[in-house]
Write a structure and sequence with these properties.
The chain has 137 residues and is α+β, with helices and mostly antiparallel strands. It is built from seven helices and four strands, in the order βααβααβααβα. The two termini are 14 Å apart. The chain binds adenosine-3',5'-cyclic-monophosphate.
Length: 137
């Protein structure tokens, strides 16, 4: 069993499609072992996305991620990291496969409805950024 970290981003929460994204998560066989709704500060978004701090989109991305609440999740199943990336689809919704979250719900490369860890080392940073051990069940 493997765990990955996921965010349902502000664009999806604002449009009230949190439940549709959660349905896709459960249909794909994930167990939700942690889940909460939070409103990130800009500084918290910057800390989370620090690996992108030199990218031209960093400031806009952190402003977007802190403009309204998100749902943060820890998902568990076999091969969770790769599987969640498959279920989300490509970063740019325009390039995502039909049926994926980003294809169905994403608005743009920035407002792409969902985030997922890209590697075990990333998940090992991202999960404890938001969750304590006691919150994972
Ligand atoms: P995410 O999986 O959350 O990881 C980093 C985010 O940066 C990514 O999803 C996109 O929302 C955003 N991103 C990546 N590339 C670009 C880009 N070229 N322009 C704007 N935002 C981007």
């Amino acid at each position: 069993m493997e765990r990955t970290f996921a965010i349902i981003k502000p664009d999806a929460v604002e449009r009230k499609i949190t439940g549709k994204v959660l349905a896709k998560i459960e249909e794909a066989g994930f167990s939700i072992v942690g889940m909460k709704k939070i409103h990130l500060s800009k500084a918290q978004a910057e800390g989370f996305y620090y690996v992108h701090k030199e990218r031209p989109f960093f400031n806009d991305l952190c402003a977007f991620m802190s403009r309204s609440p998100v749902v943060v999740l820890v998902l568990e199943r076999e091969n969770a990291i790769a599987k969640w990336r498959e279920v989300m689809g490509a970063t740019n919704p325009a390039n995502a496969e039909p049926g994926t979250i980003r294809k169905e719900f994403g608005v743009s490369i920035e407002e792409n409805s969902a985030h997922g860890s890209d590697a075990p080392e990333t998940a090992a940073f991202e999960i404890p950024y938001f969750f304590s051990q006691l919150e994972l069940v």
